[in-house]
Amino acid sequence: MGATDSGVRDNPTGPDQPSEDADASADLSTAPKSDLPGTTVGLGFTGWARWMWRQLTSMRTALLLLFLLAIGSIPGSILPQKSVQPGEVTRYLADNPGLGQFFDSIGFFNVFSAPWYVAIYLLLLISLVGCIIPRTRLHWKAMRSTPPKAPSRLSRLAESSSWEAGSTAPAPQDVLTDAAGELKGKRWRVHVTDFDGTTGAVSAEKGYLRETGNLIFHVALLVLLVAVALGGMFGWRGQALVIEGESFSDTITQYDSFNAGRLVDSGNLPPFSFTLDEFTATYQEDGDQRGAPRTFEADLTYQDDPDAIPSQKTVQVNDPLIVDGAKAFLVGHGYAPVIEVKDPQGRVVYDAPTVFLQTDQNFTSNGVVKLPDIDPQLGFQALFLPTAAVDEVRGPISTFPALNDPAIFLSAWEGDLGLDDGIPQSVYRMDTSEMTQLGIKAIQVGQSWDLPDGKGSVSLTGVKQYAVFDVAYDPARFYALAGAIFAILGLMLSLFVPRRRVFVRITKRAASQDDAVGSVGATVEVAGLSRTDEAGLKPAVEEISTVVQQIVPPAPKGMSGS
């Protein structure tokens, strides 16, 4: 009968059921279960977890995550961020409603706190930890282990040389001992395989600091990332503009701009304060760099807390005031003319130093004065010149940044300032669309201008200076600095320290009639293997060969056996 009939007859359970013999054959087979017909083996939860962990902790994944982190940071440096420039974000959304709403929905206006950015950051940290721990363990074992034994065929290595030992060669074991001593003197880690009557070898290795530097770099990068994260969560930064004679206290209401980490209690800032007693700036008086700044100094009287005894401090560029871990850096300065305005009845309605913003290197500055509480409302657009001059083409300009001949050019306006519409305005700009110009006048310190139609008067009673301070607190800044320094050191070690292995072997062979006079029937071999720099390996092997030839000189040329 055919094979099919035979199969049915031999399987009493029926043609659609597997026979007991087939089960037994399958159980006794040495083939993998997955290779047997009708079998499927799954990884299971543990297998999949291990596979995912290995993928996450691979160097390829770490580099990919680092690249994604860099790409993800681009929107945060191009687009305005809600935590730093909320007004700019609002303006962007108004000017670009469609694209702005899309960017807002994916967190482009709050990149560094967006869930996707935090996820990349955390995955990168986990990946680095997963890379570092096993590599550290393996490196520790490698540093404590002896160099590997010499390969059987040294001639196949990248660089090698061999020669027949001359008649004056010392005993093979003495050769190995002396060669090991020379290599140890050159700071190689050495392992000697004693001469057994036929062969013996010296294995040497150096360059363990290369992998040490690699690990230092990765650990430092991890420390740097953690420090940046901690600084972002627990740190804060703000800018404050302080006029001469006025004070600043470390409360959020005193800052012109303030940015705090998610875990910062803005109501519990360090309770220090300071007063700007005087600001001094000097400039080059002549030469090609006339007007270039030379020194900036802010004389402060500060207190660590309200009950502390006042202390003095002169803040300069890169020499901040440090109080309770917070640093107040001097980052800018400008002029604040003291402007006095009187109403038609002669009453003073405004008398204060007014901050003007610099527009060029000679401190030509713009500012405005708004008087919304009088009827009709008044406003002044002003141009302040520390050293005033009038150019035929450009008009009023400042020719030097110091207060050599200060003057202010005023443009007076009357009407609706637009402050009652509920739309916020900049304190440095004035909307004149609903106003009428009263006139233009230039006045110097001590002079007054009587406004047309008896609208009052305006005077320049003096000029003060102001300083801009950047106050910052970062509890992890020292860790970030240490991480950056050690990352550079580790990278230098991993780039410039070569990892090499060299081998010296002496092989004794039975003397034959073909041996030349002067030969002792022994072959000396020197070979090297580099894991990185092949260019520097050849000189190293040649140097070691020269040292070994001084221990065991080769047979004279022309007298070696065939």
Descriptive terms for the model:
single chain; 562 residues; alpha+beta; TATA-Binding Protein; 5 domains; 7-stranded antiparallel sheet; 5-stranded antiparallel sheet; 11 helices; 23 strands; elongated; disordered N terminus; disordered C terminus
Overall description:
This protein is an alpha+beta fold and 562 residues long. The chain is 31% helix and 31% strand. α5 packs across α6 and α7 runs antiparallel to α9. The radius of gyration is 41 Å and the shape is elongated.
Radius of gyration: 41 Å
Structure classification: alpha+beta
User: Span from first to last CA?
Assistant: 74 Å
Q: What fraction, in percent, of the residue positions are helical? A: 25-40%
Query: How many domains comprise the coordinates?
Result: 5
In round numbers, the mean pLDDT is 85
Uncertain residue segments: 1-34, 558-562
User: Shape from CA axes?
Assistant: elongated
* Count of alpha/pi helices: 11
What is the makeup of the main sheet? 7 strands, antiparallel
Multimerization status: single chain
DSSP, total strands: 23
How much beta, percentage-wise?
Answer: 25-35%
